[in-house]
Amino acid sequence: MMAAILPRTVRRAAEAALLLRSTPPRGTGHLARSLSGGSAACSNAGTSSVEFVPWHNGGGILHRAASVDPTAVVEAGAIVHSGAVLGKEVVVGSGAVIGPSVSIGHSTRIGYNVVLSNCSVGEFCTIHNGACIGQDGFGFFVDEDGQVKKKSQMLYARIGNHVEIGANTCIDRGSWRETMIGDHTKIDNLVQVGHNVVIGKCCMICGQVGIAGSATLGDYVTLGGRVAIRDHVSIVSKVRLAANSSVTKDIQKPGDYGGFPAVPINEWRRQTANLRLFSKKDGVKT
Question: Among 111, 104, 106, which Cα is nearest to 128's?
Protein backbone atom coordinates (compact mmCIF):
# COMPACT_ATOMS: atom_id res chain seq x y z
CA MET A 1 0.00 0.00 0.00
CA MET A 2 2.78 2.47 0.98
CA ALA A 3 4.70 1.56 -2.19
CA ALA A 4 1.74 2.67 -4.31
CA ILE A 5 1.17 5.93 -2.39
CA LEU A 6 4.79 7.20 -2.30
CA PRO A 7 5.33 7.47 -6.08
CA ARG A 8 2.01 9.29 -6.46
CA THR A 9 2.90 11.72 -3.66
CA VAL A 10 6.31 12.43 -5.14
CA ARG A 11 4.75 13.02 -8.57
CA ARG A 12 2.25 15.54 -7.17
CA ALA A 13 5.01 17.38 -5.31
CA ALA A 14 7.05 17.59 -8.50
CA GLU A 15 4.06 18.95 -10.43
CA ALA A 16 3.45 21.60 -7.76
CA ALA A 17 7.08 22.66 -7.85
CA LEU A 18 6.97 22.94 -11.63
CA LEU A 19 3.81 25.10 -11.43
CA LEU A 20 5.43 27.47 -8.92
CA ARG A 21 8.52 27.75 -11.08
CA SER A 22 6.41 28.75 -14.15
CA THR A 23 4.44 31.46 -12.25
CA PRO A 24 6.10 34.89 -12.34
CA PRO A 25 6.82 36.43 -8.94
CA ARG A 26 4.57 39.22 -7.71
CA GLY A 27 7.23 41.87 -8.09
CA THR A 28 7.68 41.33 -11.80
CA GLY A 29 4.81 43.73 -12.54
CA HIS A 30 7.22 46.62 -11.95
CA LEU A 31 9.19 45.59 -15.02
CA ALA A 32 6.28 46.60 -17.23
CA ARG A 33 7.06 50.26 -16.61
CA SER A 34 9.99 50.17 -18.98
CA LEU A 35 9.60 50.22 -22.74
CA SER A 36 12.61 47.97 -23.12
CA GLY A 37 12.05 45.72 -20.13
CA GLY A 38 12.91 42.35 -21.62
CA SER A 39 10.66 42.60 -24.66
CA ALA A 40 13.13 40.60 -26.75
CA ALA A 41 13.64 37.89 -24.17
CA CYS A 42 10.94 35.66 -25.60
CA SER A 43 10.55 35.96 -29.36
CA ASN A 44 8.78 32.76 -30.36
CA ALA A 45 5.05 32.04 -30.05
CA GLY A 46 5.54 29.28 -27.51
CA THR A 47 6.92 31.67 -24.91
CA SER A 48 4.92 34.82 -25.82
CA SER A 49 2.75 34.53 -22.69
CA VAL A 50 5.80 35.28 -20.57
CA GLU A 51 5.80 38.78 -22.07
CA PHE A 52 2.66 39.64 -20.05
CA VAL A 53 2.99 40.17 -16.31
CA PRO A 54 0.54 41.20 -13.54
CA TRP A 55 0.46 44.86 -12.61
CA HIS A 56 0.93 45.68 -8.94
CA ASN A 57 -1.78 48.36 -8.84
CA GLY A 58 -5.18 46.79 -9.61
CA GLY A 59 -4.35 43.27 -10.75
CA GLY A 60 -4.52 43.75 -14.52
CA ILE A 61 -2.08 42.32 -17.05
CA LEU A 62 0.64 44.33 -18.82
CA HIS A 63 3.07 43.58 -21.60
CA ARG A 64 6.68 44.01 -20.53
CA ALA A 65 7.18 46.51 -23.37
CA ALA A 66 4.39 48.82 -22.10
CA SER A 67 5.29 52.05 -20.32
CA VAL A 68 2.99 52.56 -17.35
CA ASP A 69 3.32 55.18 -14.64
CA PRO A 70 3.49 53.67 -11.12
CA THR A 71 0.36 55.63 -10.10
CA ALA A 72 -1.77 54.15 -12.90
CA VAL A 73 -4.46 51.60 -11.98
CA VAL A 74 -5.12 48.66 -14.29
CA GLU A 75 -8.00 46.70 -12.82
CA ALA A 76 -8.32 42.92 -12.84
CA GLY A 77 -9.35 41.59 -16.24
CA ALA A 78 -7.86 44.53 -18.17
CA ILE A 79 -4.90 44.04 -20.49
CA VAL A 80 -2.31 46.52 -21.80
CA HIS A 81 -0.39 45.55 -24.94
CA SER A 82 3.14 46.17 -26.16
CA GLY A 83 4.26 49.77 -26.62
CA ALA A 84 1.24 51.30 -24.88
CA VAL A 85 1.90 54.36 -22.71
CA LEU A 86 -0.23 55.17 -19.64
CA GLY A 87 0.32 58.46 -17.84
CA LYS A 88 -0.02 59.44 -14.19
CA GLU A 89 -3.19 58.45 -12.33
CA VAL A 90 -4.78 56.78 -15.34
CA VAL A 91 -7.50 54.26 -14.40
CA VAL A 92 -8.27 51.35 -16.75
CA GLY A 93 -11.44 49.44 -15.85
CA SER A 94 -11.94 45.69 -15.82
CA GLY A 95 -12.27 44.05 -19.22
CA ALA A 96 -10.70 46.97 -21.08
CA VAL A 97 -8.13 46.31 -23.81
CA ILE A 98 -5.41 48.88 -24.48
CA GLY A 99 -3.92 47.96 -27.84
CA PRO A 100 -0.32 48.18 -29.03
CA SER A 101 1.22 51.68 -29.08
CA VAL A 102 -1.90 53.38 -27.67
CA SER A 103 -1.14 56.39 -25.45
CA ILE A 104 -3.35 57.67 -22.62
CA GLY A 105 -2.76 61.01 -20.93
CA HIS A 106 -2.67 62.06 -17.29
CA SER A 107 -5.77 61.37 -15.11
CA THR A 108 -7.86 59.82 -17.89
CA ARG A 109 -10.41 57.19 -16.85
CA ILE A 110 -11.19 54.21 -19.08
CA GLY A 111 -14.44 52.36 -18.32
CA TYR A 112 -15.26 48.66 -18.34
CA ASN A 113 -14.86 46.73 -21.61
CA VAL A 114 -13.50 49.71 -23.53
CA VAL A 115 -11.31 48.80 -26.52
CA LEU A 116 -8.61 51.24 -27.66
CA SER A 117 -6.48 50.60 -30.74
CA ASN A 118 -4.62 52.81 -33.22
CA CYS A 119 -5.36 55.91 -31.15
CA SER A 120 -4.15 58.41 -28.59
CA VAL A 121 -6.25 59.82 -25.75
CA GLY A 122 -5.42 63.12 -24.06
CA GLU A 123 -5.42 64.22 -20.43
CA PHE A 124 -8.42 64.30 -18.05
CA CYS A 125 -10.68 62.39 -20.43
CA THR A 126 -13.48 59.98 -19.53
CA ILE A 127 -14.32 57.07 -21.80
CA HIS A 128 -17.40 55.21 -20.64
CA ASN A 129 -18.16 51.49 -20.72
CA GLY A 130 -18.05 49.62 -24.00
CA ALA A 131 -16.70 52.43 -26.19
CA CYS A 132 -14.44 51.43 -29.10
CA ILE A 133 -11.88 53.82 -30.55
CA GLY A 134 -9.43 53.28 -33.39
CA GLN A 135 -10.99 50.38 -35.32
CA ASP A 136 -11.11 50.37 -39.12
CA GLY A 137 -13.61 52.63 -40.82
CA PHE A 138 -16.28 51.45 -43.26
CA GLY A 139 -14.33 51.86 -46.48
CA PHE A 140 -14.97 49.58 -49.47
CA PHE A 141 -15.15 49.76 -53.25
CA VAL A 142 -16.21 47.47 -56.10
CA ASP A 143 -13.39 46.51 -58.46
CA GLU A 144 -13.55 45.79 -62.22
CA ASP A 145 -14.48 42.16 -61.53
CA GLY A 146 -17.43 43.14 -59.36
CA GLN A 147 -15.71 42.12 -56.13
CA VAL A 148 -16.04 44.21 -52.98
CA LYS A 149 -12.57 45.28 -51.85
CA LYS A 150 -11.50 46.93 -48.63
CA LYS A 151 -9.85 50.34 -48.71
CA SER A 152 -6.68 50.72 -46.65
CA GLN A 153 -7.28 52.03 -43.12
CA MET A 154 -3.83 52.86 -41.76
CA LEU A 155 -4.01 56.09 -39.74
CA TYR A 156 -5.03 56.94 -36.19
CA ALA A 157 -7.78 58.49 -34.09
CA ARG A 158 -6.64 61.40 -31.90
CA ILE A 159 -8.71 62.36 -28.85
CA GLY A 160 -7.95 65.73 -27.27
CA ASN A 161 -7.89 66.78 -23.61
CA HIS A 162 -10.95 66.93 -21.30
CA VAL A 163 -13.03 64.91 -23.77
CA GLU A 164 -15.89 62.69 -22.56
CA ILE A 165 -17.09 59.79 -24.70
CA GLY A 166 -20.29 57.93 -23.86
CA ALA A 167 -20.99 54.23 -23.53
CA ASN A 168 -20.89 52.07 -26.68
CA THR A 169 -19.77 54.96 -28.87
CA CYS A 170 -17.49 54.06 -31.81
CA ILE A 171 -14.82 56.32 -33.33
CA ASP A 172 -13.06 54.96 -36.41
CA ARG A 173 -9.40 55.47 -37.28
CA GLY A 174 -8.41 57.51 -40.33
CA SER A 175 -7.62 56.41 -43.86
CA TRP A 176 -6.46 59.53 -45.77
CA ARG A 177 -6.38 61.83 -42.71
CA GLU A 178 -6.50 61.15 -38.98
CA THR A 179 -9.80 61.21 -37.13
CA MET A 180 -9.68 64.10 -34.63
CA ILE A 181 -11.81 65.00 -31.59
CA GLY A 182 -11.06 68.47 -30.21
CA ASP A 183 -10.46 69.50 -26.60
CA HIS A 184 -13.45 69.71 -24.23
CA THR A 185 -15.83 68.03 -26.68
CA LYS A 186 -18.54 65.86 -25.08
CA ILE A 187 -20.03 62.86 -26.89
CA ASP A 188 -23.10 60.97 -25.66
CA ASN A 189 -23.85 57.23 -25.79
CA LEU A 190 -24.30 55.24 -29.01
CA VAL A 191 -22.66 57.76 -31.33
CA GLN A 192 -20.91 56.68 -34.56
CA VAL A 193 -17.99 58.81 -35.75
CA GLY A 194 -16.70 57.61 -39.13
CA HIS A 195 -13.17 57.57 -40.44
CA ASN A 196 -11.38 60.87 -41.24
CA VAL A 197 -13.95 62.91 -39.30
CA VAL A 198 -12.62 66.08 -37.69
CA ILE A 199 -14.58 67.56 -34.76
CA GLY A 200 -13.53 70.87 -33.24
CA LYS A 201 -13.30 71.93 -29.61
CA CYS A 202 -16.19 72.32 -27.16
CA CYS A 203 -18.73 70.46 -29.31
CA MET A 204 -21.79 68.72 -27.83
CA ILE A 205 -22.95 65.55 -29.60
CA CYS A 206 -26.10 63.88 -28.29
CA GLY A 207 -27.07 60.22 -28.35
CA GLN A 208 -27.45 58.15 -31.55
CA VAL A 209 -25.83 60.77 -33.77
CA GLY A 210 -24.21 59.36 -36.92
CA ILE A 211 -21.35 61.27 -38.57
CA ALA A 212 -20.27 59.76 -41.87
CA GLY A 213 -16.69 59.59 -43.03
CA SER A 214 -14.60 62.69 -43.82
CA ALA A 215 -17.12 65.16 -42.36
CA THR A 216 -15.69 68.27 -40.70
CA LEU A 217 -17.27 70.08 -37.74
CA GLY A 218 -16.03 73.42 -36.42
CA ASP A 219 -15.89 74.55 -32.79
CA TYR A 220 -18.93 74.86 -30.49
CA VAL A 221 -21.16 72.74 -32.72
CA THR A 222 -24.17 71.12 -31.02
CA LEU A 223 -25.91 68.10 -32.53
CA GLY A 224 -29.26 67.01 -31.11
CA GLY A 225 -30.25 63.38 -30.72
CA ARG A 226 -30.22 61.19 -33.86
CA VAL A 227 -28.77 63.87 -36.13
CA ALA A 228 -27.29 62.41 -39.31
CA ILE A 229 -24.40 64.04 -41.17
CA ARG A 230 -23.50 62.99 -44.68
CA ASP A 231 -19.94 62.13 -45.69
CA HIS A 232 -17.57 64.94 -46.78
CA VAL A 233 -19.89 67.63 -45.41
CA SER A 234 -18.42 70.66 -43.60
CA ILE A 235 -20.18 72.54 -40.79
CA VAL A 236 -18.82 75.88 -39.58
CA SER A 237 -18.39 76.77 -35.91
CA LYS A 238 -21.32 77.73 -33.66
CA VAL A 239 -24.00 75.73 -35.44
CA ARG A 240 -26.82 73.99 -33.57
CA LEU A 241 -28.88 71.22 -35.17
CA ALA A 242 -32.29 70.11 -33.91
CA ALA A 243 -32.89 66.46 -33.09
CA ASN A 244 -33.57 64.10 -36.03
CA SER A 245 -32.12 66.56 -38.53
CA SER A 246 -30.10 65.42 -41.54
CA VAL A 247 -27.24 67.45 -43.01
CA THR A 248 -26.84 66.75 -46.72
CA LYS A 249 -24.71 69.75 -47.79
CA ASP A 250 -22.26 72.19 -46.25
CA ILE A 251 -23.45 74.63 -43.59
CA GLN A 252 -21.48 77.84 -44.03
CA LYS A 253 -23.20 80.25 -41.62
CA PRO A 254 -23.47 79.94 -37.81
CA GLY A 255 -26.96 79.54 -36.39
CA ASP A 256 -29.73 77.06 -35.64
CA TYR A 257 -30.83 74.48 -38.22
CA GLY A 258 -33.34 71.65 -38.43
CA GLY A 259 -35.22 69.31 -40.73
CA PHE A 260 -34.46 66.80 -43.47
CA PRO A 261 -32.57 68.17 -45.27
CA ALA A 262 -31.43 70.64 -42.64
CA VAL A 263 -32.33 74.30 -43.29
CA PRO A 264 -32.30 77.41 -41.05
CA ILE A 265 -34.54 76.78 -38.08
CA ASN A 266 -37.18 79.44 -38.93
CA GLU A 267 -37.56 78.05 -42.44
CA TRP A 268 -37.96 74.54 -41.04
CA ARG A 269 -40.66 75.76 -38.64
CA ARG A 270 -42.57 77.41 -41.50
CA GLN A 271 -42.30 74.22 -43.54
CA THR A 272 -43.66 72.20 -40.62
CA ALA A 273 -46.52 74.63 -39.95
CA ASN A 274 -47.51 74.77 -43.64
CA LEU A 275 -47.48 70.99 -43.87
CA ARG A 276 -49.80 70.70 -40.88
CA LEU A 277 -52.17 73.32 -42.31
CA PHE A 278 -52.20 71.60 -45.69
CA SER A 279 -52.93 68.25 -44.03
CA LYS A 280 -55.89 69.73 -42.13
CA LYS A 281 -57.34 71.36 -45.27
CA ASP A 282 -56.95 68.15 -47.20
CA GLY A 283 -58.78 66.34 -44.43
CA VAL A 284 -61.73 68.76 -44.60
CA LYS A 285 -62.09 68.28 -48.38
CA THR A 286 -62.38 64.54 -48.04
Answer: 111
The predicted pLDDT at position 258 comes to 97
Neighbours of 23 (CB within 10 A): 9
Q: Which residues of the chain have pLDDT under 70?
A: 1-49, 282-286
DSSP H/E element including 3: helix 2-22
**What does R_g of the chain's alpha carbons equal in angstroms?**
26
DSSP 13-71: HHHHHHHHHHSPPGGGGGGGGSTTSSTTS--SGGGGGGGEEE-TTTB-EEETT-EE-TT
Of the candidates 63, 128, 162, 195, the residue annotated as catalytic is: 195
pLDDT tens digits for range 138-195? 999 999 999 999 999 999 999 999 999 999 999 999 999 999 999 999 999 999 999 9
| Catalytic residue list contains 195 | yes
- 3-class SS of residue 264: strand
What is the separation, in whole angstroms, between the first and last Cα of the chain? 102
Task: Indicate the helix (H) or strand (E) that contains 280.
Answer: helix 265-285
| pTM confidence score | 0.81
pLDDT in tens, 186-221: 999 999 999 999 999 999 999 999 999 999 999 999
| Backbone dihedral region for residue 49 (phi beyond 0: left; psi -120 to 50: alpha; all else: beta) | alpha
CA distance readout (Å), 241 to 47, 88, 101, 171, 244: 54, 38, 36, 21, 9
